[in-house]
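chain below, 150 aa
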Amino acid sequence: MRRALKSLVIGLAVVLGLFLLMQAIPYGRTHSNPPTISEPKWDSPRTRELAVRACFDCHSNHTKWPWYADVAPFSWVVQYDVENARSVVNYSEWNRHYPLAVYSGQTVRDEMMPPDKYKIAHPEANLTPQEAIDLQRGLDATMGPETQRP
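prediction:
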């Protein structure tokens, strides 16, 4: 019994040591929110409202960084997800060309966006079935091929 307790204490100390060591890695704590340069010409205020709820934390420069975005390894995941999302579509830098923007409505329709891990941490992003339909249609109207520029 004493040996098992000693092994447990050593194991916990190793895990704690690794956790503390991870905090020294600087990636994942930049939390930049550059200014908005331009937004799409939304087809309606409702589409923008739903996009703010379900998309803007990752796909804009208006990210609300949660407390766990300061704690590795969660900070690494959050930072990576936001950087990747902004590179695909950034609603705050609409002066750039985003070839995949045209598929925004489709990703909502296919339930790929917002991702499940995001919805778990952000219940406000859980859209009702009607809200999801409204967002899909609004994104299709806003991001459709005929509205894409540069």
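The chain has one domain: 28-147. Residues 2-22 form the longest helix (21 residues).
thats it, cya
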